[in-house]
From TrEMBL, chain B:
Protein name: ABC transporter permease
Organism name: Streptomyces cinnamoneus
Family to which this protein belongs: Belongs to the binding-protein-dependent transport system permease family.
Pfam families: BPD_transp_1, BPD_transp_1_N
Residue ranges annotated for the ABC transmembrane type-1 domain, each copy included: 106-311
GO BP annotation list: transmembrane transport
Keywords tagged on the record: Cell membrane, Membrane, Transmembrane, Transmembrane helix, Transport
Compartment(s) where it occurs, according to its Swiss-Prot or TrEMBL record: Cell membrane
TM segment ranges: 12-30, 112-134, 146-168, 188-207, 250-272, 292-318
PROSITE patterns in UniProt: ABC_TM1
Gene3D superfamilies reported in the protein's UniProt record: MetI-like
Length: 339, 325
């Protein structure tokens, strides 16, 4: 066994799968690696708290229509315009602190007078949907390409490696901005409006195409070292097919880096998507979006600074919780790493 | 060294050519009609035909690409006139040569990037070393919780708060703006200060965390222990031995960050309404000004590729174990 390895995400040489499930009468109390991980994770208080926060955000995103119903507002109605007395003649909330009141818990938006709480809840829903879909696609592609490159090796590895290099040389932020309208125009002729669902699909596509390389590189390296281990050799000698070796021997040992990397990837993609909407190439009005709330906030900050704090603080809480969760997941999988 | 630079430059040229070809193809071949995009929502077929002819868009895409790339080297003749040597074509939106706009905008991006990088590199590495030197004490804990928050901050949030506090709240400064350093260095500095600080906050967290973990790793290395055992002072070992080893990976990341910022510190420029390359890219997206967008992409990816070569060369100076061949 290697002494304290440098890469925090390296797994112990594995309980080759099967050993845990089989159990056998000799084992007094067999626990699968998953159970062990779960036990360790439950004892990690910051980990549990951050997991709850993360779960809360996803719950809010899923239950957005329910929240809107219980709370009695929706994100598109312009309350400030419909009801006199909420906005002053300059279009800013009459009440202090962005118009926070018993009716509007997070205040109302300047000019249009929409409800901030439901805007945020639905905005989180849009952003998380895009980010989660892009993350899943990136992770799957990363696994596919990384494991293939690492396991097959040779010329395949070389060409996949050069392909990854090429994609990494694209200026990523610039490419997100530049290629999004190109993809829009693939679906819709430029003199028509792009429907929202196509904008969402386009963003997912762009984030996916330029987002999977890190995961692939990481997994390729892991597979290269795992491939030489005895348990893989043993599987080969027994005549296991490559598919079996990959799914039963390699993948169980790759869950840690995959999970840790995914928990890093998702918040990053959320912030990238928000950035795109902030500069106006992402989701457009009237669909609520987390990132576009920052653009609105930047517009109104001189007279109504309260507005931007809700999306801002929510995003900080979300990213911090996700990063802490990633640390805890890594610790739970691999107790040797010290923070 | 020379061989290394030569080989890497060749590789870089290949990468830039490939990226330019892919980008060009995506821009000019995939969307049904670039002329339609350039001409906007209400456009007559005649106008489209004129645009197509003027821009040479009636030719096959590989030919167009060849004209485009050779135009960068030798200049190019359009029906509207001659476009001198680094010719990136004419903008769809203001009909000016694209290269002029790029030259005009680049100093802003350069100022943001260099100033911001100077701040986040020194402060980030400094904090990281401090945390490593006092590992486990309250200093370390304080900075690591700070970097956890810092890592979650976004320019589009912190930037707006900074504007609200320092510009419209306390009136300490004017709105950030770019003044050429050659004209008025003081104004250049004060105009850029808020963007620099905000840009660095985002990076400091990352750099301090990386420096800390690299330093801790290096301090546990054998050669560092040997140096201590030889009787070298703690300070010498810390700064001359551990620091040198710790810097190599930091330099790599720094090169990549710097390269991608040169292509446009997009969010920063947008938040502070500074007219750099990033903002140019965004405005050319909304105006579907493909020639300008193409040129910014080319500048951006050249910056990344060059930064990578410089980093690898610098790596060899910092860590003599790395051989360039």
């Amino acid at each position: 066994m290697t002494s304290a390895s440098r890469t925090p995400s390296q797994t112990p040489p594995a309980v080759p799968s099967g050993a845990a499930e089989g159990g056998g009468p000799a084992a007094p109390e067999g626990r699968s690696p998953g159970q062990l991980m779960w036990r360790r994770f439950k004892r990690d208080r910051p980990g549990v708290v951050s997991a709850c926060v993360v779960a809360f955000f996803f719950l809010v995103a899923l239950a957005a229509p329910l929240i809107s119903k219980v709370y009695g507002k929706d994100p598109t109605t312009t309350y400030g315009i419909d009801r006199p007395g909420l906005l002053n003649e300059f279009g800013y909330p009459v009440k202090p602190n962005g118009g926070i009141s018993g009716d509007f818990w997070f205040g109302i938006e300047p000019t249009l007078g929409r409800d901030v709480l439901t805007q945020l809840v639905y905005g989180i829903r849009t952003s998380l949907l895009i980010a989660a879909a892009a993350t899943v696609l990136c992770v799957l592609t990363g696994i596919l390409i990384g494991v293939t490159a690492g396991y097959v090796g040779g010329r395949t590895d070389y060409f996949l490696g050069r392909f990854i290099d090429l994609l990494l040389a694209f200026p990523s932020q610039l490419s997100f901005i530049a290629f999004t309208p190109v993809v829009y125009s693939l679906f819709v002729s430029p003199n028509k409006e792009t429907p929202t669902y196509l904008r969402v699909l386009t963003l997912i596509l762009v984030l996916w195409v330029l987002g999977w390389m890190g995961m692939a590189r990481l997994l390729r390296g892991q597979v290269l070292s795992l491939r030489e281990r005895e348990f893989v050799e043993a599987a080969k000698v027994t005549g296991a097919s490559p598919w079996r070796i990959i799914t039963k021997e390699l993948l169980p040992n790759l869950w840690t880096p995959i999970l840790v990397q995914s928990t890093l990837m998702l918040p990053t993609i959320v912030t990238i998507e928000a950035g795109l909407s902030f500069i106006g190439v992402g989701i457009l009005e009237p669909t609520p979006d987390w990132g576009r709330m920052f653009a609105n906030g930047a517009h109104y900050y001189e007279s109504d600074i309260t507005y931007i704090f809700f999306p801002g603080l929510a995003m900080i809480a979300f990213v911090v919780a996700f990063n802490l969760l990633g640390d805890s997941v890594r610790d739970a999988f691999d107790p040797r790493t010290a923070r | 060294m020379l061989r290394f630079l030569l080989r890497r430059s060749l590789g870089a040229i290949v990468i830039v050519l490939l990226i330019s070809a892919i980008t060009f193809f995506l821009f000019f071949a995939l969307p049904s009609e670039p002329a339609l995009m350039s001409c906007g929502k209400n456009c007559t077929p005649d106008a489209i035909a004129v645009i197509n002819k003027n821009l040479g868009l009636d030719q096959p895409v590989p030919v167009q690409y060849w004209h485009y790339m050779s135009g960068i080297v030798t200049g190019r003749d359009f029906t509207v006139g001659h476009c001198p040597a680094p010719c990136f074509g004419y903008s769809f939106s203001n009909q000016q040569p694209v290269w002029g706009t790029i030259v005009d905008r680049f100093p802003t991006t350069l100022s943001i990037t260099l100033g911001g990088a100077a701040v986040f590199l020194t402060v980030g590495v400094g904090i990281g070393m401090l945390a490593a030197a006092f590992r486990g004490t309250w200093i370390d804990k304080f900075f690591s919780s700070l970097s956890l928050i810092g890592n979650a901050l976004q320019i589009y949030f912190v930037g707006v708060i900074a504007l609200a506090v320092f510009v419209s709240g306390l009136h300490w400064m004017d709105n950030p703006a770019y003044h050429p350093i050659t004209e008025n260095p003081v104004k250049w500095f004060t105009g850029m200060l808020i963007p620099w600080l905000v840009l660095s906050i985002i990076f400091i967290a990352n750099y301090s965390r990386m420096t800390r973990s690299q330093m801790i790793e290096q301090l546990a290395e054998d050669h560092v222990r040997t140096a201590r055992a030889k009787g070298l002072s703690r300070r010498t070992v810390f700064f001359r031995y551990a620091w040198r080893g710790a810097m190599a990976p930091i330099v790599t990341i720094f090169g990549i960050d710097l390269g991608s910022l040169f292509g446009g510190a997009i969010i920063t420029e947008f938040t502070f309404s500074l007219h750099g390359l990033g903002r140019l890219a965004v405005s050319s997206v909304s105006e579907t000004d493909l020639p300008t967008l193409m040129a910014v992409m080319l500048v951006g990816c050249t910056a990344i590729v060059v930064a990578n070569i410089v980093v690898d060369a610098a790596y060899a100076f910092i860590d003599p174990r790395v051989r360039l061949a």
